[in-house]
């Protein structure tokens, strides 16, 4: 999933307010917009022109039928691994959850359908979020002081309301016809109409130009199935055993209940404290979202088959720590025994009274108890600190992080706190 796009000229991206190459990115000292400031009045009110056999639509995700059309498009056409063995299969409930957070704009859910039969052929979605994307946390005080004293230097940027883009998908039969740039221009127009001028997005592919690159890691929970579907290989060193699979299973075995005594499913009552714990934790990173209580309630109150969140409580029943993961299955393409790979992805967390390693071990125990086959993550946040101890292994996927219309120097993935679904 990390091959560079084989178009060195970047006919589309060369026209957009993004860093055009690595050196622009690594030499960037200024944090702030790339484009000259525009106003909502400057933005066309009519949609971008499109072939006459197609039309724009905004799938209403509250409607079962329209949500299902988005689900089917993605199920059959969305991201696959390099060898086309697995394809992400976001469930309808997941898509609804991910795309309708508090304050979402229905107009940012952009579809293209075929006029003659209404078939949804392409999609891209934006949601609003508040992002800290100013100067690096360790340079913040220095920068504020400099601005006070000299009125100069890097601009200090307060967290701002921006757009997160995801789920760009063009039907397989319409590929390589420059539909993606049209979708991106149309969603940009609709976002700009709400007076929002920056976006963040991630992709497996390398395009101009990421501000950070993370690596995927995987922790086997059901090694037998993972080997059977060729998600994993039987490690060489196990072949010497009489029963390699039994040994492999033993290696990845997890207890049935968490180590920490008071692990409980998060409830509405915990929202206030979790909001505080999470925002305080996310302060550590240079690039991270900030959540208000309504967003925390939306993103973390458990939804079966979608998102799972747990709190740890002290003797006096106070919430002290928190972890969450979400469910993103993949279709196993062309396997007669298994049709789905059930993956849990590490989401947001905050460790305070136990080590992050212990907290993540409890996460693995819960994910295993829920029947997931594997637990995945990207080495953002403080994830690299527990990978080896908890038996995560590197995969071959990379996740590139991008800003639209935001000058930002290259940062290591452990400076990034934003988890993309
Ligand atoms: S990442 C997930 C992307 N989806 C998939 O990988 C699903 C399977 N693949 C497909 O559906 C198609 O292959 C897609 C491309 C739709 C990806 N991000 O139409 P084309 C550029 C950005 O002929 P197709 C996610 O959802 C490519 O470099 N650009 O190609 C985040 C070339 O431009 P250039 C991409 O293969 C999306 C042009 O498209 C991507 O038929 C963030 C070719 O177009 C990609 N993943 O369709 C979008 N892949 O010539 C940006 C290819 O210049 C948001 N391209 O190299 C920007 C912010 C907008 C809001 C701003 C608000 C202020």
TrEMBL record:
Q: Which reaction does it catalyse?
A: N-terminal glycyl-[protein] + tetradecanoyl-CoA = N-tetradecanoylglycyl-[protein] + CoA + H(+)
List, for all copies, the residue spans of the domain called Glycylpeptide N-tetradecanoyltransferase N-terminal. Answer: 33-212
**Domain Glycylpeptide N-tetradecanoyltransferase C-terminal: start-end pairs:** 229-413
Q: Can you name one GO molecular function term for this protein? A: glycylpeptide N-tetradecanoyltransferase activity
Q: Which UniProt keywords apply?
A: Acyltransferase, Transferase
Q: Which GO terms describe its cellular component?
A: cytoplasm
Q: Which residues form the signal peptide?
A: none
Q: What does this protein do?
A: Adds a myristoyl group to the N-terminal glycine residue of certain cellular proteins.
Family assignment from sequence similarity: Belongs to the NMT family.
Tell me what this protein is called: Glycylpeptide N-tetradecanoyltransferase
């Amino acid at each position: 999933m990390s091959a560079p796009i084989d178009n060195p000229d970047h006919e589309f991206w060369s026209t957009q307010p993004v860093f055009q190459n690595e050196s622009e990115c690594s030499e960037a000292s200024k944090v702030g917009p790339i484009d000259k400031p525009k106003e909502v009045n400057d933005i066309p009110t009519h949609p971008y022109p499109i072939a006459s056999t197609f039309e724009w639509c905004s799938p209403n995700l509250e409607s079962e039928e329209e949500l299902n059309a988005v689900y089917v498009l993605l199920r059959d056409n969305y991201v696959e691994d390099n060898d086309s063995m697995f394809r992400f299969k976001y469930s309808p409930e997941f898509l609804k959850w991910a795309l309708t957070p508090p304050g979402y704009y229905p107009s940012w859910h952009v579809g293209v359908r075929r006029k003659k039969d209404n078939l949804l052929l392409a999609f891209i979605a934006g949601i609003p979020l508040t992002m800290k994307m100013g100067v690096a946390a360790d340079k913040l005080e220095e920068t504020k002081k400099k601005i006070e004293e000299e009125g100069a230097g890097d601009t200090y940027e307060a967290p701002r309301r921006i757009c997160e883009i995801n789920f760009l998908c063009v039907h397989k039969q319409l590929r390589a016809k420059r539909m993606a740039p049209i979708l991106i221009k149309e969603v940009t127009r609709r976002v700009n109409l709400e007076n929002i001028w920056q976006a963040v997005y991630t992709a497996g592919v390398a395009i101009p130009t990421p501000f950070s690159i993370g690596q995927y890691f995987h922790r086997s929970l059901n090694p037998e199935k993972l080997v059977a579907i060729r998600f994993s290989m039987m490690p060489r060193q196990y072949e010497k055993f009489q029963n390699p699979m039994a040994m492999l299973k033993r290696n990845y075995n997890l207890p049935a209940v968490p180590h920490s005594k008071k692990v409980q499913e998060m409830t509405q009552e915990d929202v206030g404290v979790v909001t505080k714990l999470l925002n305080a934790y996310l302060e550590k990173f240079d690039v991270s979202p900030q959540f208000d209580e309504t967003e925390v309630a939306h993103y973390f109150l458990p939804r079966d088959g979608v998102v799972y969140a747990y709190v740890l409580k002290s003797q006096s029943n106070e919430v002290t720590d928190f972890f969450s993961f979400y469910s993103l299955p993949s279709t196993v393409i062309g396997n007669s025994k298994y049709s789905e790979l059930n993956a849990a992805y590490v989401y947001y967390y905050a460790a305070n009274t136990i080590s992050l390693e212990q907290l993540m071990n409890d996460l693995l125990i819960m994910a295993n108890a829920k029947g997931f086959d594997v637990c995945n993550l990207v080495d953002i946040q403080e994830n690299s600190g527990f990978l080896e101890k908890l038996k995560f292994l590197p995969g071959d996927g990379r996740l590139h992080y991008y800003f639209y219309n935001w000058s930002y120097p290259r940062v290591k993935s452990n400076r990034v706190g934003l988890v993309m679904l």
